[in-house]
Amino acid sequence: MNAATKKAYWRENIKYLIILLIIWFLVSFGCGILFVDSLNKIQIGGFKLGFWFAQQGAIYCFVVLIFAYIILMNRLDKKYNLNE
Questions:
Q1: For the purposes of burial, counting CB atoms within 10 Å of the CB of 3, is it exposed (0-12), middle (13-18) or buried (19 or more)?
Q2: Cα(69)–Cα(52) distance, rounded to whole angstroms?
C-alpha cells in the first residue's frame, strides 16, 4: 500500500469516527441532558422520553453505533483490499 492510499484510508476512517462520535455525543449529552425537558413531553411505555434516553435509549444507541462502525470498517477494508 502506497502513502497516498494509506492517507486516503485513514481520512475515511477518521471521517467515520467523527460522524459516529457526533451521533454518540448528541444521543448521550443532547438527549440525556440538554433536550430532556423537551423530550419529557413525549412518553414511551409510560415513561418520559428524556428519562428513557438517559436510562435505556443511549445504551441501545451505543450498541447500534458499535455495529455500524464494524460494518463501515469492513466495507472500508474491502475497498482498500485490507480484509483479512
A1: exposed
A2: 24
Closest CA to 30 of 20, 19, 42, 22: 22
- Give, for 71, the enclosing helix (H) or strand (E): helix 58-79
Question: Residue 43, by phi and psi: left (phi above 0), alpha (psi -120 to 50) or beta?
Answer: beta
How many angstroms separate the CA atoms of 30 and 49, rounded? 13
pLDDT at residue 39 above 80?
yes
Domain ranges of the chain: 3-79
Cα 41 from chain centroid (whole Å) = 25
Q: What does pTM read for this prediction?
A: 0.80
Is-contact 48 39, C-beta < 8 A?
yes
